[in-house]
């Protein structure tokens, strides 16, 4: 790690990676969340650090431990993730691999909800900030390269291409997470990299290999 940090094409560059799920509390013992192991985001952070970048790794409660050699900022909720992302700026590149919960429970209780004979609890929701959208649309101090992820279950290229335009990010790393692919929670990934020129489908490979390939392309993009 010492070796990797002291040299490499991304030496002197600062890169942000978000990773993992967010947990949105319902009460002190319950939460809502997306399914995310954090494996792909963690691998991307590791690969960027191995190329010499200073990586700020903003992570929700993931299944896998953060990599060595990165600056770890651990958060629980989407709002905390947004604050940590804003505090990490400016960066040369930002990779948003987190599976952010789209909604939080606006009626969260500071006491444990109890079963009663009066019926079921009623939860009210509020929409969480779209962190990728906010950074992509920055008027000044925007990272030179903003990369989003899109986990889709159908019409992957169409959905991810529309998502790239809606968010305003430069690249989208799209993947098919329908159950029959076995990608969710597995060690492999099959991604399609979408940029302004179109879609590039990569062969199925290990999440670590996907991360190394993506890190190499990020390095090429921001250093040339
Ligand atoms: N993202 C984010 N903040 C959010 C939601 C998503 O930063 N509140 C980022 C994710 O980290 C990912 C990208 O946006 O890089 C796409 O996330 P996704 O959930 O696919 O996009 P949404 O706009 O929420 O669309 P959908 O309705 O398909 O969930
Ligand atoms: Ca979403």
UniProtKB/TrEMBL annotation:
Phosphopantothenate--cysteine ligase, as annotated region: 15-224
EC nos: 4.1.1.36, 6.3.2.5
Alphabetical GO biological process terms: coenzyme A biosynthetic process; pantothenate catabolic process
Keywords: Decarboxylase, Flavoprotein, FMN, Ligase, Lyase, Magnesium, Metal-binding, Multifunctional enzyme
Organism: Sulfitobacter donghicola DSW-25 = KCTC 12864 = JCM 14565
Superkingdom assignment: Bacteria
Reactions the enzyme catalyzes: (R)-4'-phosphopantothenate + L-cysteine + CTP = N-[(R)-4-phosphopantothenoyl]-L-cysteine + CMP + diphosphate + H(+); N-[(R)-4-phosphopantothenoyl]-L-cysteine + H(+) = (R)-4'-phosphopantetheine + CO2
Gene: coaBC
Similarity field: In the N-terminal section; belongs to the HFCD (homo-oligomeric flavin containing Cys decarboxylase) superfamily.
Pathway where it operates: Cofactor biosynthesis; coenzyme A biosynthesis; CoA from (R)-pantothenate: step 3/5; Cofactor biosynthesis; coenzyme A biosynthesis; CoA from (R)-pantothenate: step 2/5
Record protein name field: Coenzyme A biosynthesis bifunctional protein CoaBC
DNA/pantothenate metabolism flavoprotein C-terminal domain: residues covered: 10-220
A GO MF label: phosphopantothenate--cysteine ligase activity
Binding positions for CTP per the UniProt entry: 102, 112, 129-132, 149, 163, 167
Known cofactor(s): FMN; Mg(2+)
Note on cofactor: Binds 1 FMN per subunit.
Any one annotated GO CC term: phosphopantothenoylcysteine decarboxylase complex
Function: Catalyzes two sequential steps in the biosynthesis of coenzyme A. In the first step cysteine is conjugated to 4'-phosphopantothenate to form 4-phosphopantothenoylcysteine. In the second step the latter compound is decarboxylated to form 4'-phosphopantotheine. Catalyzes two steps in the biosynthesis of coenzyme A. In the first step cysteine is conjugated to 4'-phosphopantothenate to form 4-phosphopantothenoylcysteine, in the latter compound is decarboxylated to form 4'-phosphopantotheine.
